[in-house]
Structure formats: C-alpha cells, structure tokens
Amino acid sequence: MRKSTIIGVLGAAVLALTGCSPNYEQPSDMAPGPGTPPPPSAIVPAEDSGNGDETAQVNTDLEFAQQMVTHHEAERQLLEVAIKNAPDERVVELAERFEQEHGPLVEEIRDWLREHGEGDVTPEDVGTGEDSQMPGVDVSSEITKLEEVQQGRFDSLWVKSMVDYYEAVVEMCRTEIDEGSDEEMKSIAQQLLDSRVPALEELRQLQRNL
Question: Which of 33-37, 84-88, 110-114, 116-120 has the least mean pLDDT?
Fold first, then answer.
C-alpha cells in the first residue's frame, strides 16, 4: 500500500473517532505541528540507484571464478581416478594429457580471487540455488561409482562423466563471456572455451568408439 494511502486512511480514522468533519479550508502558511504527517504532494518516491545491472555483472564474474576453481578440483579427481583405474589405454592417455594441459588458467583465477578479497574456494562455498547463473558440480557420487564399477564398464562410465562435466564448463564459459564485465575473467573464459570444446569433441569421439 502506498504511504499516501496509509496516511489518508489513518486521517479518516482519526476524524471518525473525534467526531470532527474534514477541514476544506485553504492550506495555512503556518508550519505544521510536531508529528503532523506531510501532505501527499511532499512525499517524493525514492529514486532507483540504477546499479542493478552492474551488480549482476560483478556477481557473474565472481561466481564464474569460484565455480571454475571448484570445477577444476572435480576435473582433477576424475582424471586421477581414470589414470589409476582405466583398463583402456586410450582413456589413460587422454586423462594424462588433460591433467597436464588444463591447470595453468585456474591459477590465474585463484590469483584474481585473492586480489578481490576472496580466499580459497570449496564446493560448499559456491551457490547452486535459484539465484545461481551457472551450474554447480558434485562428482563425489561419480567417483564412488567409478571406484566400485566393474572394469568392463569403467571406461564408458568415465567418459560419460567427463562429457557431462565439460558440457557444464562450456556453459559456464559462455555465460561469463555473454554476461560478465571483468575483461580478465572474460578473456580466461574464452581461453577455457577454446580448449574445452575440442576436449569435449575428443571425449565424444572416444565415447562412440568404446
């Protein structure tokens, strides 16, 4: 309810209780007494600060950086379990190559987070609720399945997990490029996109050949 409407209702109630009739005389030049509410014409609506879009962009950059750190940890776990357990040598070689190629940019992201007053990030720190613009990742259940699955099914299950993971990373990078405002983060997102899209295609090709 508008403030002016509330004031009008209260004024009417006071008149009814006191038995007075409304005063339609011209407004007086005298200053209103203490506690007298201002007339509706004097109530000025608060102006919109106009910073909503800028705040959303800053949040997109921060969320992207935090998500990429946690996604990298998930990738590291998936690669390690493949190197140790995959029966197919093609899977082992691919995991070893990804492990060597996909680390340096994450260190740049960690540096950016520290420069912006953010400490080490854990999966619990990263929002994945309705307000989150990027997908979260939790590979703990996948790691458990991979460690317990029979060797004959390991390779296909691992490749499927990696495809799902890289699809999430690609989505995150595109969100940052489209909606972020920090040029350093957008540049890193583009570099990650340029490396993960070919990696995703390699995984899909391997998936078809297993």
Answer: 33-37
| Buried residues in 20-47 as b, exposed as e (16+ CB within 10 A) | eeeeeeeeeeeeeeeeeeeeeeeeeeee
**Calpha distance 119→139 (Å, rounded):** 22
The pTM (predicted TM-score) of the whole model is 0.65
Residues 6+ apart with CB under 8 A from 3: 43
Helix (H, G, I), strand (E, B) or coil at 163: helix
Mean pLDDT of 3-10: 43
The DSSP call for residue 36 is P
Compare 198 and 139 and report the one with higher pLDDT.
198
pLDDT band of 92, cuts 50, 70, 90: very high
